[in-house]
TrEMBL record:
SUPFAM superfamilies: alpha/beta-Hydrolases. This is Esterase. InterPro entries: AB_hydrolase_fold, Esterase-like, Mycobacterial_A85_antigen. It comes from the Bacteria. PANTHER family: ENTEROCHELIN ESTERASE-RELATED, FERRI-BACILLIBACTIN ESTERASE BESA. It holds the Pfam family Esterase. Gene3D superfamilies: alpha/beta hydrolase.
């Protein structure tokens, strides 16, 4: 394991035991669960992967594509810094991280939980750097995201995308959160009908249950899909 810090962002590299393997980037709200995620991946006997986690994020800014009001009384507003952060991530964090990796990279993936799951989907529209993505309990309730997905073109169609939500996440009176399962299923179906390989997983529990296990499951799914030829824009 190798860690470094850039602009207050902590980047941790969980280097694979072999060279020439995929690299998956995982934006996280806290770093405490990252060791557990990597250990679960190894226990699942997934294909070899180098996992790169990024923490120390300004969560409601870095992970959100545009401004949005607080979704509840005690919540903070979202301030739409995803473009700025993605530019920093792809031009500064990724090159520095990959300079420290042994061997070649067979493909890159992007994964995230909650708002980072929203970011993983949005990023596919802004950059062609990632060929696979996982939106794990992703915040696809976010105002305007479903209209954006349906009306914009990806930078490059990915090989596959993983989606999941908790079975209790939409059981709420909150007008934003109650749409999360419906929106996620509609977005997954939209991509599937475009010919992209997708899956939707309904996990038991609410948004905060078994985050490390859910994240590992999403990353594991990405790792086990057969590599496809690059697709053209739709």
């Amino acid at each position: 394991m190798n860690s470094f810090t850039i602009d207050e962002k902590k980047v941790t590299i969980y280097q694979a035991n072999t060279a020439d393997v995929p690299v998956i980037y995982l934006n996280t709200v806290m770093e405490e669960g990252n060791d557990k995620i990597y250990e679960i991946l190894k226990q699942q006997e997934c294909p070899e992967v180098t996992l790169i986690t990024i923490s120390g994020l300004d969560w409601n800014h870095d992970m959100t594509p545009w401004d949005a009001p607080p979704i509840s009384k005690n919540a903070e507003p979202c301030t739409g810094g995803a473009d700025e952060y993605l530019n920093f991530m792809t031009k500064t964090i990724v090159p520095e991280a990959e300079r420290r990796i042994t061997g070649k990279i067979s493909w890159r993936g992007l994964a995230g939980y909650s708002l980072a799951g929203l970011f993983a989907v949005y990023a596919l529209y802004q950059t062609d750097l990632f060929s696979r993505a996982a939106s794990i309990s992703g915040s696809l309730w976010f105002p305007g995201i479903i209209d954006y997905v349906f009306s914009h073109e990806m930078a490059k169609e990915p090989e596959c995308i993983y989606f999941s939500v908790g079975s209790k996440e939409s059981r709420t009176r909150n007008p934003y959160m109650k749409t999360v399962r419906k929106n996620t299923e509609q977005i997954e179906r939209f991509y599937r009908e475009k010919g992209i390989q997708t899956v939707f997983q309904l996990n038991p529990g609410n948004h905060f249950q078994n985050a490390a296990e859910r994240t590992s499951a999403g990353i594991g799914w990405l790792l086990t899909q057969q590599k496809q030829e690059s697709r053209q824009k739709y």
